Amino acid sequence: MSPLPLRGLRVIDHGVVWTGPLLGRVLGDHGAEVIWVRPPGRLVGITLSGTPTPFTDPANPRSYQPYGRSKLCVTIDLHNPKGKGLYKELVNVSDIVVENFAPRTMPGLGLGYDVLKEVNPCLIMISAPAAGSTPGPWRDLMTYGPSLSALFGLKSHLGYPGERVLDDTADLDPTACMHGFFALMAALYERGRSGLGQWIDMSQGEACLQRNAESVMEYTMNGRGWGTLGNRYPGMAPHNIYRCRGDDEWVAIAIKTEEEWAAFCRAIGNPPWTSDPAFADAQQRAKNLDELDRLVESWTMKHTKEEVQETLQEAGVAAHAVLSAAGVFRDENYTALRTNVKVEVDAIGPEMVFVGFPWKYQKTPLSIRSHQGPPDRDNDYVFGEILGLSQAERNQLREENII
Amino acid sequence: MPDGALSGLKVLEYGDFIAASYATKLLADLGAEVIKIEKPGIGDSARRQGPFPGDIPHPEKSGLFLFLNTSKQSLTLDPAKPAGRDIFLELVKGADIVTENHPPGFLPSIGLGYQDLEKVNPGIILVSITPFGYDTPHAHYKSYALITSAASGLAWRMGEPGRPPLALPLAAAHYQGGIHAAASAMAALMARGHTGEGQHVWISEVEVMGNILGGDGQEAYFFDGTERSRDGIHNLAFYPWEVAECKDGAFCIMTMIQRQWDRFAELTGIEELKDNPMLANMYGASQYAYEIDELWHPWLKEQTKAELWDMFRREGVAFQPVLTIEEVVKADHLRERGFWVEVEHPVAGTFTYPGAPYKLSRTPWEVATPAPTLGQHNEEILCGRLGFSQPDLVALYRGQII
């Protein structure tokens, strides 16, 4: 069995809501021993208030499975002095702490980086709240992914051109998660050189603002702020999503070079409108976008989305059907990517499907190594085997509701 | 200034436009040495993208290129030509990571596939960013960011019912490709610590968009078969989750906490929101989204963004305004965080760029140098490092190798 990339690393995961638990899962899938620490007695799920969603209903053994996989589950009462002591013992033998609490939380518990660093100078801690941990007007704002994308300007481009802003998908948490993963790897690399850990202060919003470089630079260079952008991209035309034959059937087409434009025209049979000077080159097409889109759609409407995809791809033109979640599930390319991992786990009933691993390591492939159980499932292993507490000591802690 | 976290790491970037560039920018700004290979004469196509100051196009003044290529060296090179291939392999010998985003199969076709790189350096890590996979049925597909977004399942979720789906704006898929490539390159580096060997790692933009990003899409579907489509200003997973217009903009009205909604309802002073059976349960309420909206949308439309935000913060209601890019750039918080960096470029001049995605306490992120001019480091690399002479360079240039 080939070694997993992060074999030998021990991570303490305090993740709440989404970014944190997802980062813990990515680390766990990569082979780290991830210890998910939660308070004894209640399941802190994806909601901050404990209102169960179907996804996080404590009564449903299938709930929260995707976020609990490849992790050990333990409970510690961090408000209790003995619990804090136990936690520090764990920090002493761990490499990484992951947390995305509100910035005051860990320092408020007396467990901020300045304290944990003294316990373990090799520790790398990442704090990943919405807007970063340093003081500032937004530090203590409570947000979710979609409201964070509103705050950081990302949402302002989502909508039909010139029309109102619409809801975007919650992509901030996973994006921030991957930046956090990268930053942790960088700190590990540095620790290999220096022997020391450090603190990573990440703002989820700042991490995600990177993907809007084009619009940020347009503002900082030219003082122009873009509004809702539809499916447009400067310099590319056609570049949109077009209706196809059938009900709610769509295809995306994107053309950048004149070669691609010529290939597109040939593929659709060189109708007379394609010779109109209004579409002669990218500059002209950009000036006549609405008319161009209308004409392209007059062709796509006559075909299914699959026909458009195949015809244009065969001609070397970028096009793809717009797929729903079910469509993705059925798609042959996704099946080949092994995007979905089907797993049978006794404790959780019928076969569950999980998202797989988008990173294909040829020599060190990843796999789901464990599933979520009750929050205190691994208390004995972690406190007994790793920290060396006796059965009696563990029972005592249980009785005091510290674990 | 202390060394960057990734000082000592050596990276080759051989790609075009955004994905591979963003991946290696992340490495370069943390101190890795990144040599960016650009097409002789014309360079990376991001140089032609803009935005340009004053809308005057210039290959050294493209905002996108300037942002994506901080802290890197530029070497013009055509590795598809035999002499270019030799130079590339010499550089691979001294490198840890090669990042590329060519169509799958291109590198092997010019004798620079993983097996070829491994021969000269068994420790080399090759990271390939593909649109649809490396060895999959659609690996040969032509693609841009809009295309992988559409194929990922994400576009299906955004836009208004009955109108075209909307992909995530601009080139989100390429940036996702970049961050996943940087992350997996580093993980492969950790693996090398165990195995002593490099490896080939590849990712596809379609999968990173669909999977990791699919919390509300793919995972919900797997969990209980829920198929959600686009719902305009709403996400109908529960209520409230929407973007609602106020007098001078929009607000994200979203919470999972009953108390917060109740406090908001009180603040509106609208009687019909009190004890309303439609609002008995936040998950059930979404089926009445439009009816409930009608009760308070007109009230919101009367308030300005500033008034609402002040009120919400005072009252502990965690709704956030939809800020424009202008408001974000001017926000006190980001300035106080030191998020923005001023970068001075010898040709383009000085502009404000987005700064560190994360702050490392001991070995901070830093823009070491502005984006390179085309071929800026040719002499330094070819003569200084690889031992070519000046006349060699002239010959290479004439032969369009560099």
Oligomer: heterodimer
Low-confidence stretches of chain A: 45-52
Largest sheet descriptor of chain A:
6 strands, parallel
Beta fraction of chain B: 5-15%
What integer is the average pLDDT of chain B?
A: 94
- What is the count of β-strands of chain B? 12
Can you tell me about this structure?
With 403 residues, chain A is α/β, with parallel strands linked by helices. Helix content of chain A is 37%, strand content 12%. In chain A, the strands form three sheets. Chain A has a six-stranded parallel β-sheet with strand order 3-2-1-4-5-6, with helices on one face. In chain A, helix 1 (19-29) packs across helix 7 (172-194). The relative contact order of chain A is 0.13. Chain B is of the alpha/beta class and 402 residues long. Chain B is built from 16 helices and twelve strands. Chain B has helices at residues 19-28, 63-68, 82-93, 106-109, 114-120, 145-152, 172-195, 205-210, 218-224, 258-268, 289-301, 305-315, 325-330, 332-336, 378-385, 390-398, and strands at 10-14, 33-38, 72-76, 97-100, 125-130, 199-204, 241-246, 249-254, 320-321, 340-345, 349-354, 359-360. In chain B, the strands form three sheets. Chain B has a six-stranded parallel β-sheet, with helices on both faces. A three-stranded antiparallel β-sheet of chain B has the order 7-8-9. Chain B is elongated. The chains are: A alpha/beta (403), B alpha/beta (402). At the A-B interface, helix 6, helix 7, strand 6, helix 8 and helix 9 of A face helix 2, helix 6, helix 7, strand 6 and helix 8 of B. Strand 6 (199-201) of chain A pairs antiparallel with strand 12 of chain B, so a sheet runs across the interface.
Key descriptive features of the protein:
heterodimer, A: 403 residues, alpha/beta, six-stranded parallel beta sheet, three-stranded antiparallel beta sheet, 17 helices, 12 strands, 12% strand, B: 402 residues, 15% strand, elongated
